[in-house]
Amino acid sequence: MPSPRFILFSSVALILIRFAGSAVLSALNRRQVRLHADKAPDAVAGIMDPETYRRSVAYTLAKSVFGQVEDAWSTGVLLLVLLVGILPASLGAWTGFAGSGVWAEAGWLYLVGTALSLPDLPLDWWSQFRLEERFGFNRSTLRTWIVDRLKGLLISAVIAVPLVALLLSITRKLGPAWWIWAWGLIIGFQLLMIVVAPILILPLFNKFTPLPDGTLRDRLLKLGERTGFSARTIQVVDGSRRSGHSNAYFTGFGRFRKIVLYDTLIQQLTEPELEAVLAHEIGHYKRGHIPRMLAWMALSLFGAFGVIGWLARQPEFPQAFGFRPDSGLAPVLLLFGILGGTVTFWFTPLGNFWSRKHEYEADAYAVKTMGEVESLVGALRKLHEKNLANLTPHPLYSAFHYSHPTLVEREAAMRRAAV
Predict the structure, then answer these.
(1) Is 363 among the residues known to form the active site?
(2) Exposed, middle or buried by CB within 10 Å (0-12, 13-18, 19+), for 122?
(3) pTM, two decimal places
(4) pLDDT tens for residues 214-224?
(5) One of 105, 363, 385, 411 is an active-site residue; which one?
């Protein structure tokens, strides 16, 4: 293992390289957007009227500039935290107060994670109540915004602290192979949350109501029968309480599966377009994307826990950031959590590649199921228009930040599939 000093300098270099890479990508994207700011390219000219297109350009540029400020701020806070010894000092103070048991260590991780999120709150507020408000998307109140964050802190305390305490307990009892058992614990927990979260957690933030009887409900239920996709219920979520953005998804699996439509989506689309959107979501299920996603998640976590298990045996790693070599697993978990993104950032195009492949497959399934292409094309065009989506992203930026193909790419693929 390299020396602690080398590890520290390498970590700082990785953080700065990731920040520089992200800044270059954002700059390339802004340049691409500005090239077409005055007039939409012919390929996308029919998607938005000129005034809406100008607003989408302004929204994209404003979000990009704000994102760079946010990234610079977060990077600066991270470097400060790592370099001035705040983390080991906090562990020493906490251990002196609460001891060194697994519950104490889990509590320290929760408190440090909460503290590290506090510097981002002013920027989160600005994004919601200034940027989103400026472009007509914010529907939230300050009270709702505050309550949401307090609920999130409480829920994470109730769930995360016992889970981490159990994980730390495993590491102390099961020997060198502890990380395999810890991986199994986290996989089991995530599968459990797929069932539990829609029932117990999501209703704490939004109101879910059954889709009323009528032609839309009949149409969507017939689609489910036609495709062999059975869902426990079709629900409408009051997404308009917080934002003008819209979405549709299904949650759970087996008999716990349910379809969820944003109320904003129902307001924006016609019934055939809503049916096409749901057919697309069903396409993800029918093409086996969900188990593939879960398998990829499990494989990625296995690799992550393997790395954590190896780092936990290297005393130089926590020493590089001011911890004692016998500080235990908690500092390693924390450092891996806050540094891991500096490496995984460079692999996001690979994940997005597979995600885009799945989107193409789901689109093709929807076109085949509907027997025509115009409903899904119309739905996607409206969603891009209502959400002021960027119609001219730079290809490199898109590769790193877009899990979906661009609208032009999707339309072209759908029309080929319809031939």
Answers:
(1) yes
(2) exposed
(3) 0.91
(4) 999 889 889 98
(5) 363
